[in-house]
Design goal:
Blueprint (H helix, E strand, L loop, with lengths): L2 H8 L7 H8 L3 E7 L3 E8 L4 E8 L6 H16 L10 E5 L2 E3 L4 E4 L12 H9 L3 E5 H12 L8 E6 L3 E7 L2 E2 L31 H4 L1 H14 L5 H4 L8 H9 L3 H25 L3 E5 L7 H14 L2 H4 L3 E4 L6 H13 L7
Parallel strand pairs: 1-4, 4-7, 8-11, 11-12
Antiparallel strand pairs: 1-2, 2-3, 5-6, 8-9, 9-10
The protein binds zinc ion.
The site of zinc ion (ZN) has 5 residues, from loops.
């Protein structure tokens, strides 16, 4: 018995159940692809964000744009052959670099994939997989994943921050990513919090990521290790240059006082930047992801305090500041959300 037949049989008898029966019958599957520096992660995802099949393969970014595209297509084909019903009806992909989300073309190179600039990513995927395809920047896609299926799913307007080598940001307004005129909206890491502050790779000074991203936290951890001040870091790693931001976050979460001070200092810098964001955008929720978020309340306590201290009362009153919920699945979940949001006529046969 196929779904369509079941529907025709059931509906005359259970008119009152029409809505729920119909919802089951139009359940959609899409493919989400997350192009990372190390791995391509792909998944078949349903319209409630459940992963029903998964496939991953090494990115091998150094092999160049055509080879990386071939591995994305291969991942898509592997997922299309997975035994799911209904078959996936669209593809979404998150890629590093600047992406024109309207056309799905790479407009600003991702530094680690030679030749990736000007790649018509969505068009090439669509032609190879014979499905509608949509592309956006990986940080935007992660934000969309948290907005649709993760920590921000109860809110319409949210900002998602990922603390890593830099501080990436995605702005979701009315459940859609805000891209800006040149596809660069959401670069919260380059919000300056000090006119005469540290030099940043972007050419400006005092950008919050020079104080609160993983390299700055790791550097403070290394100085702490060398200082001789008693800290759990000395039990965790055997040399100062082995200290990572994740180590500092872990030690802070376990109550190590000097590491808590490092995380608090980063949190206050981030809080100052986010207070500006809150005053401008008045989101309902800020989601924080990345390894440093593992510090838990050592990060979130002072961060919330700083945002409330500096943000306008009306903007911070009901503001939620919460950890990301999807972890590494935010990428595929968000790519799937992108496909679900953009595709037309899918699953309505
Ligand atoms: Zn900067």
């Amino acid at each position: 018995l196929r779904r369509g037949q079941a529907l025709r049989i059931i509906l005359p008898f259970y008119g009152g159940m029409k809505a729920s029966v119909w919802k089951v019958s139009v359940k959609r599957h899409v493919i989400g692809l997350d192009l990372g520096g190390t791995n391509i992660v792909g998944a078949v995802v349903d319209d409630e964000g459940q992963v029903v099949a998964e496939h991953r393969t090494p990115t091998q970014a150094e092999s160049g744009a055509e080879a990386v595209l071939a591995r994305l297509i291969e991942t898509g084909r592997a997922l299309l052959s997975s035994p799911v019903e209904p078959k996936p009806c669209a593809v979404g992909v998150g890629s590093p670099g600047g992406i024109d989300a309207e056309t799905g073309r790479v407009v600003f190179p991702a530094l680690n994939i030679p030749g990736w600039e000007d790649m018509p990513l969505a068009a090439r995927l669509s032609a190879a997989l014979e499905l509608p395809a949509f592309a956006d920047n990986d940080v935007n896609v992660t934000a969309l994943g948290e907005a649709w299926f993760g920590a921000g799913s109860r809110y319409r307007d949210m900002v998602c921050i990922t603390i890593g080598t830099g501080i990436g940001g995605g702005v979701v307004i009315d459940r859609r990513v805000h891209h800006g005129a040149n596809h660069f909206a959401g670069e919260i890491g380059h919000t300056s919090i000090d006119l005469n502050g540290r030099r940043c790779v972007c050419g400006s000074q005092g950008c919050v990521e020079t104080y609160a991203a993983a390299p700055a936290i790791a550097e403070s951890g290394r100085r702490l290790w060398e200082s001789g001040i008693p800290t759990r870091l000395r039990e965790m790693v055997s040399a100062a240059d082995e200290v990572t931001a994740a180590d500092v976050a872990e030690a802070a979460a376990s109550g190590d006082a000097p590491c808590r001070r490092i995380i608090e200092s980063a949190a206050r810098c981030l809080g100052a930047a986010l207070a500006n964001v809150v005053n401008i955008l008045n989101p309902e929720c800020i989601v924080i992801g990345g390894g440093v978020a593992q510090a838990g309340e050592a990060l979130f306590g002072p961060l919330r305090e700083e945002v409330r201290l500096r943000g306008l009362n009306v903007a911070t009153e009901n503001l939620a500041i919460v950890p990301a919920a999807l972890g590494e699945r935010a990428g595929v979940g968000g790519a799937a959300a992108l496909a679900l949001q953009r595709v037309r006529g899918c699953g309505t046969k």
